[in-house]
Amino acid sequence: MELKAADASAASASEAIRDYVSLLKPRVMSLVVFTGFVGLYLAPGELNPGLAAVAVLCIAIGAGASGAINMWYDRDIDAVMSRTCGRPIPMGKVGADEALAFGVILSGMSVMVMGLATNWVAAALLAATIGFYVFIYTMWLKRRTPQNIVIGGASGALPPVIGWAAVTGDVTALPLVMFLIIFMWTPPHFWALSLYRSGDYEAAGVPMLPVVSGRRETQKQILLYTLVLVPITLLPALFETVGLLTYGLPAAVFGAVFTISAWRVFRDASEKNCRRLFGYSILYLFVIFTLLIIDRAAGA
């Protein structure tokens, strides 16, 4: 009997841990952590491997903390959207106050540890990232303007800048280009999702572009942003910061595929085409930043 009770208690504790981990939006966090690591890896100079790991962990925790606070604030609309209704707060698995406290504590810890482990420039950038996502995007923009994703994307674009600053204590051209790549990538990425999830956003009263301006305008904006994004990804090669063979040509090829995918959505915003663009956009960003790592490794 006692053994069964112990097993039940262990299972309950394990489930509670999973619920709190899900508050951190681990799938979103994975890209954030990866781009932050790339910024750190590309930065000139050296950082103790242990401190480098701490810096990446702080970026991960800061991103996750932002997600937890976002879930606390958006718990009302999450409950009516099919994509988000299974999150811990709408399901009653984690209380709203507990989620908020969890997010706030992790936010403060990540910034403080980043400052102590690396430098306060990186810590300030991490704090700005968290603050921008929580206050500017979540609390101000998301429910008020169809430009929520465009402006709010700045928070998701800062991790490589933070990683770079953790090593150097400053910000130069290459991390700013990495910022621009993610910033311009975010709208077509999320608008592809919003096209086939527009009913969700409309039901929740979130003014995503397809809800406010219609599907056709969204299709056009996806293509326009893509046409600006792809040349930006080639800037490091044009400035000879990276190699043509190790980065420039592969980036151009993957960019061409992205453009074709955006063109297909422009021509026909079927769920199939939108899902393909959304999925490919994730792969595309991963590939672009992986190419930067390969180029640096090849030139080391």
Q: Which helices and strands, and how do they pair?
A:
Elements: H1 2-23, H2 26-42, H3 49-73, H4 75-78, H5 96-117, H6 120-141, H7 148-157, H8 159-168, H9 173-196, H10 198-204, H11 209-213, H12 215-233, H13 235-238, H14 244-267, H15 271-299
Helix pairs in contact: 2-3, 2-8, 2-15, 3-5, 3-6, 3-8, 5-6, 6-7, 6-8, 7-9, 8-9, 9-12, 9-15, 12-14, 14-15
Describe this structure in words.
The protein is 81% helix and 0% strand. The chain has helices spanning 2-23, 26-42, 49-73, 75-78, 96-117, 120-141, 148-157, 159-168, 173-196, 198-204, 209-213, 215-233, 235-238, 244-267, 271-299. The chain folds into 2 domains: 21-171, UbiA prenyltransferase (Tetracycline Repressor, domain 2), CATH 1.10.357; 172-300, Four Helix Bundle (Hemerythrin (Met), subunit A) (Up-down Bundle), CATH 1.20.120. It has 300 residues and is mainly alpha-helical.
Descriptors for this entry?
300 residues, mainly alpha, Four Helix Bundle (Hemerythrin (Met), subunit A), 81% helix, globular
Tell me the CATH superfamily of the largest domain: UbiA prenyltransferase
CATH topology annotation of the largest domain: Tetracycline Repressor, domain 2
List the secondary-structure elements in sequence, H or E.
HHHHHHHHHHHHHHH
Query: Which CATH class of the largest domain?
Result: Mainly Alpha
**How far apart are the termini?**
61 Å
Strand tally is 0
CATH architecture of the largest domain: Orthogonal Bundle
Derived structural class: mainly alpha
